[in-house]
Amino acid sequence: MQHHLPSASYDSPYRDLAGARVVVTGGRGTLGGAIARACAGLGAKVWSLDVTPSGPTASGTVRERMANVRDRASLETVRDEVEADGATTVLINAAGIQRRTDFAGCDEATWQELMDINLNGVYRSCQVFGAGMRKTGGSIVNFSSVSGVVVSGKGTPYGIAKAAVSFMTKVIAVEWAPQVRVNAIAPTAIPSGMTADLFVSPAYVAAKLADIPLKRVGTVEDMVHAALFLASSASGLITGQTVIMDGGLSLR
């Protein structure tokens, strides 16, 4: 059996997401929420997971559930609900936190928190939801960061975790092929809840743009399009890759 073959319908490349069962961690964050809504808009059944209480949903096809990527049992509860409907088709790992510290100044508690959410959270989610996908096929999209590609002063522990996510993506892609494709997205900083404190500073924005050859920052829409592409069979020959979306920043 061949998996992940793309459609020849080029005007609707994500058509196979219609009816898919999609799980999004960090689903109430800026990126996770946008991806969840986009998948639902394409006809997918979406489970949006986060540690915060659920609120009003934009679509009846988005099921908001409280779950913590630090708590395997909470993920397993959602997995059981999803699998009562059928196997998970797509997993988007968008849960994450940032703590602005350099390596020398990072205390033990901050290090453990960053690693347990940003790295171990991806490990747990992939294991829990990937078990069924290994039997029936599917696609996983992990969020890494350009901070895991280049060294940034006040975000190096975060970057270390994200670099590990990119390598984990390669490992799982090899171990779970051909049934499951696994890829990652490594964005530069984009306006979101996680970066709100940065983008209020004109000096930060000016310095960031000076470092980016394309002279613009990323947008949520950039990330959603990339996630949909990697989740769907439109990227059916791509696995184990980290797509760096930084406007050329890491080329410097």
Account of the 3D structure:
The N and C termini lie far apart (43 Å). The longest helix is centred in the middle third of the chain and has 21 residues. This protein has a single domain, classed as NAD(P)-binding Rossmann-like Domain (Rossmann fold). It is globular and about 50 Å long. With 252 residues, the protein is α/β, with parallel strands linked by helices. It contains 8 helices and 7 strands; from the N terminus they run βαββαβααβαβαααβ. 40% of the residues lie in helices and 15% in strands. Helix 5 links the parallel strand 5 and strand 6. Helix 2 runs parallel beside helix 4 and helix 3 packs parallel to helix 5.
Radius of gyration: 17 Å
Instruction: Briefly note the CATH topology name.
Output: Rossmann fold
CATH C-level: Alpha Beta
| Number of E strands | 7
| Tally of contiguous helical segments | 8
- For CATH, the homologous superfamily is named as NAD(P)-binding Rossmann-like Domain
Topology pattern, helix = H, strand = E: EHEEHEHHEHEHHHE
Relative strand content: 15-25%
**Overall CATH architecture:** 3-Layer(aba) Sandwich
Oligomeric status of the shown chains?
single chain
Unreliable spans: none
